[in-house]
Amino acid sequence: MQIGFIGTGVMGTGIIRNLLKAGYPVVVFNRTQAHAEAALTAGATWATSPRAVAEVSDLVFTMVGFPQDVEHVYFDADGLFVGARAGQLLIDMTTSTPRLAQTIARTAASRGITALDAPVSGGDIGARSGTLTVMLGGEPGAIARLAPLLTVIAQSWHRFGGPGAGQHAKLANQIMIAGTMTGLTEMLVYAKAAGLDPSAVLTTVGSGAGANWSMTNYGPRILAGDYTPGFFAKHFLKDLRIALDEATAMGLTLPATAQAEALYQAMVDAGRGALGTQGLILNYE
User: Fold this and answer.
1) How many structural domains comprise the chain?
2) Residue 221 sits in a domain of what CATH number?
3) Choice among 170, 192, 234, 238 that is catalytic
4) Of these four, 153, 193, 207, 247, which has the most CB atoms within 10 Å of its CB?
């Protein structure tokens, strides 16, 4: 099975490496070829456009930054839909809008192609270790076709419904992460001001009811001054904006998520959007 993969960022490269290790040939495209070097060194081959990826692949994963990037990858003159053929499977792992996922699925279906939305959670650690959680929207039969690959890159996956449902599930996930990241940040700020040993605070809180993934994985990075992106702050801000837009469309008000969005907006405005989400603590310095 020839796999195509578009998007060789932090997450995409980890997934590609696991697919290669499992023996699958992978052809890749990235907007900037230099950023695909790690994937190419690991054994992937290069294609010159999304269209070229589709022309030689049995199925194609996409994992890019923003919804507008997804639109370009699928709908441009050299996009996936130009090169794709009936029977192919297209899987978008970008956190994007549910409505765009539905548009892609409708367009795909009109051409005899199947499209799934399959955003993931687990960060760079999950991508490298093959322990991601995948949230799926689309046809059950298509997900069954994808299952052998999911076992390589993920520890769990769940279908939430038709096209767009996977994106809604990921947005719910990001709403939760917003709370854990702001809680982690302000916990450490408070502990420092109180003169506590922050490492001991992480260990103690992590053994009680306050334990959570963000604290376990990002707390030590903060203490080490490591703001390398496991997930870019600018992308998390995008996710929170989408979640708030969807909430508004459903008649919901999410004040805590709105506050988190404002905090990450301040981080991006300060020129720190390319740092990891744990860089939020720099807002408090």
Assistant:
1) 2
2) 1.10.1040.10
3) 170
4) 153
